[in-house]
Specification:
Shape: elongated
Radius of gyration: 23 Å
Strand content: 15-25%
Largest sheet: 8 strands, mixed
Strand order of the largest sheet: 1-2-6-3-7-18-8-17
CATH class of the largest domain: Alpha Beta
CATH topology of the largest domain: Aminopeptidase
Number of domains: 2
Oligomer: single chain
CATH superfamily of the largest domain: Zn peptidases
Helix content: 25-40%
Number of helices: 12
Distance between the termini: 6 Å
Number of strands: 18
Length: about 425
């Protein structure tokens, strides 16, 4: 089977998928509330004869299972797309920009909602890829699993699908290989991956530090938790600069500090929300240990009346691409995308719960669990605009990144590249 010929023959007209993308972008759903994306994906897969569609897995998660019709021993391949949006007010000015607000089921607060990370593009690409692979099923053997995962942004979706019995109660065929991708602020039409570490682990938690409240005119009779929190925030900036090997990557962010209600009352407590990104287990342990040491010491130094309260909020695993699987995918991508493919791509700055769908696969012999996986990126920025900003040294200022209120992939050639990558990746393993 010649993959370029297959794609030229079976790739659908992408105009309808562009319209689908715009609809999803205009009507996003927060984590745990991805109803439109899930309904759209299920309806589309159900319209393709032969797809066995199973819904409501770990929330709005779903899978579609398709058997190849060609004789042979093709593998079982799982392709994953995430579906949730973010609590961000969109500022792109696009005609299909989101103006949606909805109450977040996690905290009951109404928030603006935007697909600021490109998951709407992931859904559209996956549905077009599913259509392509369905149309060409007579030319490959094996089993294809199309999986749409909710709640990636809060690191809960993959865990929820596993906990709900993805591979047991819902009888998803056990994959031999798990594949996934993410649109990034790189030139559209480019694709990249690499062997080994490809996305950081992320640990998020809330820390409440305690003081003794009172009147702002009598600070000597209080213990000010705002001062404690301020010292913690400043001191935490030394963890990476002074305790992490400069050759290692790590980020410590205090994304939120909350204390008190008005200016003339010293509060009795302050809340810090902290996020940590690391790329090796050793650095992860060192950084988390340093944070706990610093928080404890600053509380003691200020005479805090009780120990700080630690509350984990989310945890993303390391994304470490399997060597043999990534070499296999890289070979196929290099052949298809030519010089638009980078086999030593820059790793993601963010984190993913994607690996859980592979590491929690039960072994077919019932002994142990875990199968190989490969994750890659594809670009979503107009190539001419990207190059112009790069030449002027303005990439940081003029090319919006994921989670920005201005993040909006150029629809083409982003979508076509994302579809091609999924199809090429899958077909490189399906028997032919």
């Amino acid at each position: 089977m010649d993959i370029p010929t297959l794609l030229s023959t079976h790739l659908p007209d992408l105009k309808s998928y562009e319209a689908l993308y715009k609809k999803l972008h205009e009507h996003p759903g927060l984590s745990l509330q991805e109803h439109l994306a899930a309904e759209t994906a299920a309806k589309h897969l159900q319209s393709l004869s032969g797809f066995d569609v199973r819904t409501n897995i770990g929330g709005t998660g779903l899978i579609g299972i398709l058997k190849g019709e060609k004789e042979g021993d093709g593998k079982t391949i799982l392709l994953r797309a995430d579906t949730d949006a973010l609590p961000v007010e969109e500022l792109t000015g696009l005609e299909y920009a989101s103006k949606k607000r909805e109450v977040d089921v996690e905290d009951g607060v109404e928030k603006p909602v935007m697909h600021a990370c490109g998951h709407d593009m992931h859904v559209a690409c996956m549905l077009a890829a599913a259509t392509t692979l369905h149309s060409s099923r007579s030319e490959w053997s094996g089993t294809l699993i199309i999986l749409f995962q909710p709640n990636e942004e809060r690191a809960g979706g993959a865990k929820a699908m596993i906990a709900d019995g993805l591979y047991t109660k819902h009888a998803c065929p056990l994959p031999d290989i798990v594949l996934g991708q993410h649109v990034m602020p790189f030139p559209a039409s480019t694709v990249g991956t690499k062997i080994g570490s490809f996305a950081s682990a992320a640990d998020s938690f809330k820390v409440t530090v305690y003081g003794r409240g009172g009147h702002a005119s009598q600070p000597h009779r209080t213990i000010d938790p705002v001062i404690i929190a301020a010292h913690i925030v400043v001191r935490l900036q030394t963890v990476v600069s002074r305790e992490v090997d400069p050759r290692e990557a790590a980020v410590v962010t205090v994304g939120s500090v909350q204390a008190g209600q008005t200016e003339n009352i010293i509060s009795s407590e302050a809340l810090l929300k902290i996020n940590v990104r690391t790329v090796t287990p050793e650095t992860r342990d060192r950084v988390l240990g340093a944070i706990k040491r610093i928080v404890k010491a600053e509380c003691e130094a200020s005479g805090s009346p009780k120990e700080p309260l630690w509350e984990p909020t989310s945890q993303f695993p390391f994304t470490t691409n399997d060597k043999a699987t990534t070499e296999h995918v890289s070979s196929a991508f290099s052949s298809f995308f030519k010089d638009k493919f980078d086999p030593e791509a820059q790793p993601l700055g963010g984190s993913e719960d994607f690996p859980i769908l592979a590491t929690e696969v039960p072994h077919k012999d019932g002994k142990g669990k875990g199968v190989p996986y490969c994750y890659w990126t594809f670009g979503g920025v107009d190539p001419a605009k990207f190059e112009d900003a790069k030449q002027r040294g303005k990439l940081q200022e003029e090319v919006p990144i994921n989670h920005s209120a201005y993040f909006a992939p150029v629809i083409q050639p982003t979508m076509k590249t994302g579809v091609e990558a999924l199809v090429v990746g899958a077909l490189s393993f399906l028997g032919r």
